Amino acid sequence: MQIAISAISDQNRNSAYAIAAVAGTVYCYSYALVYGPIMILTVYGLWFLPLALRPGIFKVAPGDLLIYSVPLLALASAFWSDHPDISLRFSIQLITTVALAAIAAHVVAPSNLSRGLLLGCFITAFQSFMEGSVHGEEGGDGALKGLFGSKNQLGLVAAIGITAAICHLSAYRTTLPVKVLYWVAVAIMAWILFLAQSVTSLISIAAALMALGAVSYLRRLPQAARAVFVPWAMVGIATLLIIAAISIPTAEIYELLGKDPTMSGRTDIWEVGYETSAANPVLGVGYQAFWVPGNVAAERLWEQFLIPDKTGFHFHNAFIQVLVELGLFGFLAFAFTIVLILFREGVALFLGKVPRRLLIYMPLTVFFVSRTTSEIDFYGQFGIGTFIVYFIAVQTARTLGGRVRTGARSVRRPRFGLRARAARLAAAEAGPVHAGASSHGASGSGGSSLRPKGPKLLGPRAKGPKLVGPADRSSKPLGPKHGLLGPRGKRTRPRGLRPASVPPGFGGDRTS
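RE: above sequence
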């Protein structure tokens, strides 16, 4: 049995492989600590296979290096780290995790991403539900922690699956039986999330659904209305968030939810993080060089929170974690990555037609950004959050970077200014070549043709549709679907040729 390369590496034809690969990535990353390194090696195999079959699918433009600023800075931190060997090893693992996400972004279509996340999260959460344990068995709070040994990790997996399912149903049309299966899966994962008692995951789902509703509403508005409404809406939302963060007492909110006002002791951890970052404000202590046995501050926190194995602990705040390990430079790089992704997604709201994939990307981005104040989902190696966020970052860089795919290569064209206007005028004037045009464009000695690439020229002996002119009155004029020339010899655009006014990339492919 032979399998076509396109069934693995072409995102327009590899739905089965892409869904299985994304689901396998979620499962393997989730249970890597349970089943061992074989799970990580499986993820490498899933994404290096399409790259090996078609090496040309993965390309990195110089402007895309901004996306990888945090992993590269983590690698550089080995030179000043308190534990260089640890920083070097873990930073290389982070770079490979980001590289796998970048390969997947060139192979997986947005619809297959959401379906793969749903499948992988459902299998992972359901297995933990069937085989996992409960905190109450050891005198805990009665929350389901699954095979992970952590209710927050189980809540994260279930929340991602719920968000991906609802976003997919909002973005793409499905049959009624498929919709029923999706909602059954959502109901089961919602019950698992309820048993996990993860408040952070519930807040993240609410934020993602609000982003989904906003994008769905804006897609229905005309472009002129969006151009006026979106900037003011962004300013208003940012202002409300700042006011809420300053004025609303977080402790009282947690008391209303029946939770510890100190957020399970996280405020104590944050205080230690601020003290450590003040001692190394610019470059930090090195990537993952704080939570190391022998570090006095880390030892004190492990003892306070009863963690004898001294593993699986962090500051429960992505910004504090980055500030401690990579200093001010890392903090700025991390914040810039988030702003860059949100900016590129916001730009898509101003296009003539807002692409459907934004209904997937924007809610997932908001989902993970809303968790940065309590978790570090997309900063560590071999994590689901790191894979998804950098997948979205690379996809938005490809589709909003001004590149136009032309067969086997990509070309860049200007979008603003006089050069952009000249390019649009040239594209509007350059129509299909007339029938009977001369082909005297080839050089005499070298034999290389100097005429531009385009539709094949039709000569007197060329096979093609019959051209109707003034001298032939016996035949009916051929319409646009039959040839290059329409009624009365007018030019018509061949099917599949993009008009010059359509923005490149983001809204034009059939996988959007």
